[in-house]
Amino acid sequence: MLKNEEFIQEFIEEAGSHIEQIESHLLELAGDVTDQELINQLFRSVHSIKGTAGFFGLDNIVNLSHSMESLFGAVRSGGVYLDDLSIDALLEANDCLGIMVKDPAKSHEIDISHYTHNLDTILSEDTKKVEGDSVGTSHEPPSPQDHIQPAGGNIPTVLVEDSIRVSIGLLNDLLNLTGELVLGRNQLLRGLEGHRKHVEGLDPVLQNIDSITTQLQERVMQTRMQPLGNVFNKFPRIIRELSRQLKKEIRLEMEGTQVELDKSIIESLADPLTHLIRNAADHGIEKPGQREDTGKSREGLITIKASQEGGYVSILVADDGAGIDVNFLKNEILKKGLRTQEELSLMEEKEILGQILLPGFSTAGSVTDVSGRGVGMDVVRTNIERMGGTIEIDSQAGRGTTFKLNLPMTLAIISSLIVESGGQNFALPQVNLQEMIRVKEGDKDRSIEIINGFPVLHFRHKLLPILSLSQVLDLPEDLPQPGKEDNHRTIRILVLKMGERRFGLAVDAIRDDEEILVKPLPRHLKDLKCYSGVTILGDGKIAMILDAEGLASQGELKFPEAGSDPKKKQDIKQAATGDRTMLLFSCSGAETLGLELSLVSRVEEIKHDDIELIGEREYIEFRGRSLELIRPEEHLPISRNEYKDQRLYVIIPKVTGPPVGLLIGKIHDSVSLSWDFNRQDIKAHGIMGTTFWNSRTVLALDLPELLQKAAPEDYGAGDSDTMGSGAGRGGRY
Length: 733
Hints:
Distance between the termini: 54 Å
Strand order of the largest sheet: 10-14-15-13-12-11
Helix content: 25-40%
Shape: globular
Number of strands: 29
Largest sheet: 6 strands, mixed
Oligomer: single chain
């Protein structure tokens, strides 16, 4: 029976945090064993564990932490000097400490004699060496209070952390209740939409409910967000051990540890990333001698980099090793009977690389403790897809391999576009949406034709594969069929993105934007890969949530890849340097502004009288909700005039955070312009550069910076380094 059991959970959490810090600091100390501040921090952490464990009568934890504390004390006083073997012994002891802390009630069953013996041996042997070489200096561990005595005898300042611990169960309940509140808000707004103007005082009440619900949802979501550093911090230790085990020289670099993901995703990410790291060290990085023979440095490099792209987080795991030999891979695929020669001949290189994700596929020649255990990359793919993510592979023989994981920031509440096909409504996550296209009769730049039995769209000098949502889901058709022509209809196509891949999804109608609560699929629908979940819409009806990756797989899409075809290479070059479709417009002055069309959700025509002033902010009613307006000329170095024309326009950008609209006076055109901006002539926050259209200067808007200036409380500075087709809270695009 433990003493004071009511406080034991707090001890587990605090001690667990200290143990993580000890491991991290020990690995840092391996690079500089003279870092006195790190040694002091290590001493304080292990002393805290020892003191609290003594309060609970956990003798094994007390004894092991005391041995570690004694060694750190001797190091701090100069009596012991740590080397790699000493740090290894401390890491092993810290691991044992972690095991006991996780289950204190059984900690007395753990045999700690091996760890205490190693630590005591290091302490006694090193102390003897130092004493034999020095003038009888005492090397007794300092008093536990020594570390808090500041120079000069001043009273130390006590810092109180402005936070409290809350159980995960309580946060989960709060998240679920908030999700139900979002659904109730949607139904309330939809049901009362026609009564706003007829019931006095109803409109501001609904606006307030809408705003508060959105803010509450975002704050609750933030309580579950954790930095990726919680996962990344374990990898320096893994690389250190693998380097010795494999007799390789490996350096690890990490970026983006501050990027945040939902706690549930963070917890599920550790195993897939560990698998990729081990594979990179074992299969990717060559032996030092082999690297020197090929002109490389002896030391291999593994990089883990995280960044935010819209509502997704992208994680790259890359190595500069041998890469994947595609010809060898083909032979292995044929040997295992996973594909036929004919099937392989039709595949592009990227598709062939993707075959390593098939169940049971492994190129390891033998089973080792590092990899090649008979568990292939399909386990990684399964775990990533279970979280609603995707995985991409890029490799060059002799130069290295990169795995790119694309993961949603959260799995609970997402912004979606409601679309209709075959008389049914579906929810499409906004993070997958790049832009919306209408294909009309006689449009030379946008035409659909059938190639080898599959519809493709000629769009911006490229071929975009097209899927019919109705066809994939076995609903009434909404695309022209082979041998038939129908030039009297408008086809609505959503351009969806999955990493670097793009395809068009044809739908019958586009209904509305809506924040939805994601519910898991019922058991009998688990195997339907076209759906990632189910939700309840504002009208009370159930809608399936579409999965872009699943739709592409179900429709057996073939994505054009860059190969030896010069035309394809030229297309890629143009895309990289080059031409983007921009919406050109003017505000209240004469300047012509441009915004990349992929960042525009829609453009609404309004009357000046539709604008309502609340405090110092302007709003309009949009789809039953209040939409805040931003006047770009108030935040950019351009002319400002009064609008004389009653007819105005509102550009609604793709944002997953608080919705906003850009108030403008005139739409000029939607044109393809060079993306190679002149960034020297005009330098201002909110403008990324200039280009030309019809001999006129076009100021290209930097949307993240503009929103940061206009609404810093919602789109805070410091998050503008990522940009894509959608926006998130804090200016993330």
